[in-house]
Amino acid sequence: MSMSMQQPILGLSAADAAFYQEHGWVTTETVLDDSLIDEALAGLEQHWAGHRDRTLPGARKQFGDWMPGDGEGTRNNEYLSLQNRKVSALAWSPIVGAIAANAAGSTGIRLFDDQIVYKPGGQKTAVVGWHVDGDYWGTCSSWNMLTAWIPLHDCPEEMGPLVVLDGSHKWSHTVDRSIMSFHSPDMDALKTQVESLGYEFKPVTIKLKRGQFSLHHCRAIHGSYPNRSDRPRIALAVHMQDEANEYRAATRPDGRPVQLYNDVICAKNSLGMPDYSDPGVFPTLWNSTAEAVPAKGTAC
Ligand SMILES: O=C(O)CCC(=O)C(=O)O
Ligand SMILES: [Fe+2]
Fold this sequence. Notes:
- The chain is an alpha+beta fold and 300 residues long.
- It has 7 helices and 13 strands.
- Strands 2, 3, 4, 6, 9, 11 and 12 form a 7-stranded antiparallel sheet that branches.
- Bound molecules: 2-oxoglutaric acid and fe (ii) ion.
């Protein structure tokens, strides 16, 4: 895929980057081309029809990969950008990387992983439970990673867009983990807990137009409510590493080692440890040798 875009890439304004640092989330203007989004949707359909540009071992056993016949609930397709070129064109787009680099204050941004989250319309109960992305990345040395949340259509409140707890990246480590999980349907228990710790429980609903995206910090608590509309809610979440991130060994509470799917498929460094800069698994979206020009801000 060609990265040789000649026109300058618009980044995030300094004010928006400061907003992100303070609040743990930020939204962009309409920066993604319609054609890029159309292609990603076509890539998703290709995937569900069985097409693979690259086949990853262990699909459905080692990572989520919804396929037709799997049921009517929320569809989750992980690592899609490594498997489908049309999806990677959006997920790895330099504009996403440049904006993320500005927000994180990093000289470069690499992919960590990605996922499609598809919520069928008219579902009253299908939520994405409150969670912190970084909790799933115990083997990452950095607490400065971040996620781009890219809806593939206009995403008003009734479609259950992403909801982020404002400022929670600063205190989420103090919250009891037993009430937080991507797959937990109880959205109310957390409020009591957060307030009892003395923090403000301030959910921000990230309503976006097609072509906009949001960023959230890897320590920010977030989730989403049901899609009450009659249309599917389709979002691509691009989880990204800042330049400094590297592998570090980690263990679960029960003493077993943490091993992510990434760790299995990526190259190993000279110590035999996963190399989180392997370009075959962690492509660079953007680095500071590219030219970034600050854009007007849209922090809301
Ligand atoms: O799409 C959603 O509702 C959840 C996405 C998410 O958890 C994320 O982008 O990190
Ligand atoms: Fe998440």
